[in-house]
Amino acid sequence: MKRDFYEVLGVERGADIETIKKAYRKLALRYHPDRNPDDPEAESRFKEINEAYDVLKDEKKRAAYDAMGHAAFANGGAHAHGFEGFARGFDADHFSDIFDQFFGEMMGGQRGRSGRRRGADQKVELEITLEEAFRGAEKQVRVHTLVRCETCRGSGAAPGSEPTLCPTCEGAGRLRARQGFFTIEQTCPHCGGSGRVISDPCKDCGGRGLKEKDRTLTVRIPRGVEEGTRIRLAGEGSAGLHGGPPGDLYIFLTIRRHPIFEREGAHLFCRVPLPMTTAILGGELEIPTIDGARTVLKIPEGTQSGRRFRLKGKGMPELRSERRGDMIVEARVETPVRLNRKQKELVQRLAEELGEKQSPESRNFFDRVKAFWEDLTE
Ligand SMILES: [Zn+2]
Ligand SMILES: [Zn+2]
């Protein structure tokens, strides 16, 4: 059951407007949700106080209330607002719902919370090496962020003073204008929507309640992260306003180019020069691996340039998994340079020794070239 509006404000039925205002201010300050965070009791009291005040401060509404009590607004709220014609078109309960909703939003919901604002999310970029992405890492990031001012404990008011209710919006943070049945809301220009004004601002933060600060945070980079991975540190963004929750910090990872390995998802790719003689005779080639070790790759006799070898499980770890990708090694046969006379003679002799069959690709290719030229001359 709804309490009597006069009782809610603790004033006599015949109290004048000044007395009502005074009583309202005192109670509104006491039960303001900013002063009673997460206290549903205080919140509902605050709502009740505002609802009562909204009626009693308005001459017409007060007269309607005095005449009919709460019933004035259950089905006759329209009366006080001058749209009785409208109200008759509604079924009474429905109208009362809408009216309550108005009160609920205007008086309780918005008014109570308007000053508290969640802090902004922040974004930082962090470059890591491929080895760090491979192993996982702990990295320090420096963030320039807003933190709560400790001097005023975030209130913005100098120590010893307190913010007061904004006289323009009476703590709502919003102003509303009625246009017929509809209500148009706007943020209160006087208090900027916080519902409060500070007459003696905190000198450390200039009344903002927040201060800029460089912070260093430790970020754990999981194994297997990829370029563009976004890590969210909940609550590490900018501090909230007037007791609002802080924002989050997002870390965007980029991975520095590696001098040896190229990454393709979980696989690693690398090009390795292969001495011509090893390519011809076969042999072994020592290959670096991302874990800092090395592995020996068997090169079969007659390996062609560009041939790819797959080393199973030598790639990157997959995120949140024990699996690892492969390493793909592309052999690039290297032509020896700066030969001395003796070496040139040996190669010359080798060339004389080699028959067509020893260069199957060339033979194949030149057969095709021959056919092409023959086509042209026909
Ligand atoms: Zn301060
Ligand atoms: Zn205001």
Describe the structure in your own words:
The chain contains 12 helices and 15 strands. By secondary structure, the protein is an alpha+beta fold. The protein has 3 domains: 5-113, Helix Hairpins, CATH 1.10.287.110; 122-163 and 198-255, HSP40/DNAj peptide-binding domain, CATH 2.60.260; 262-337, HSP40/DNAj peptide-binding domain (Sandwich), CATH 2.60.260.20. β4 (174-179) and β5 form a beta hairpin. α2 runs antiparallel to α3 and α3 (40-56) packs across α8. The protein is rod-shaped and about 125 Å long. Bound molecules: zinc ion (2 copies).
Task: Describe the secondary structure blueprint for this structure.
Blueprint (H helix, E strand, L loop, with lengths): L4 H5 L7 H15 L8 H17 L2 H10 L2 H4 L2 H5 L2 H6 L2 H22 L8 E7 L1 H6 L1 E12 L15 E2 L8 E6 L2 E6 L8 E2 L12 E12 L8 E4 L15 E7 L6 E3 L2 E9 H6 L1 E6 L5 E6 L8 E4 L15 E8 L6 H13 L6 H18 L1
Parallel strand pairs: 1-9, 11-15
Antiparallel strand pairs: 2-7, 3-6, 4-5, 8-9, 10-11, 12-13, 14-15
The structure holds zinc ion (2 copies).
The site of one zinc ion has 8 residues, from loops.
